[in-house]
Amino acid sequence: MTPFSMYDEVRVVKVLSKAAMERFPQDQRPPQPGDTATILEIYTRPPGYELECCDDQGMTIWLGGYGPDDLELERIWQAPPE
C-alpha cells in the first residue's frame, strides 16, 4: 500500500474490484475513476482506508472502507504532520 496519511486527499485512478462497486446505501453511489476523497481512517489488519467522497456542498457521495485490492489511489494533497 502507498503510505498515505490521515486526512490526505486522494484521487481514484482505477476501481480494481467488483466488491468496491456493490455495497452502497440508496442515497450514495460507488466510487468512480476521477473521484476525490479524504482518508478518514487507516487500517492495518487488514490493510486499507476509510474514504469519504463529498460534493461541492459537503454532502457525502460515497463513504466506505477499501483495501489495496479495491481501488488504485493517488495522493493529490498531503495533510500537514500532526
Protein described:
- The chain is globular and about 35 Å long.
- A hairpin with a 2-residue loop joins strand 2 (36-44) and strand 3 (47-54).
- The protein has strands at 9-15, 36-44, 47-54, 60-66, 71-77.
- The chain is mostly beta strands and 82 residues long.
- The protein has no helices and five strands.
- It has a single domain (9-77), classed as SH3 type barrels.
- It starts with 8 loop residues before the first strand and ends in a 5-residue tail after the last strand.
- It has a five-stranded antiparallel sheet, with no helix packed on it.
Question: What is the global morphology?
Answer: globular
- Return the average pLDDT rounded to an integer: 92
Distance between the termini: 21 Å
CATH architecture name: Roll
Uncertain regions: pLDDT < 50 for 5+ in a row?
A: none
Outline the biggest β-sheet.
5 strands, antiparallel
CATH topology annotation: SH3 type barrels
How is this structure best summarized?
This protein is mainly beta and 82 residues long.
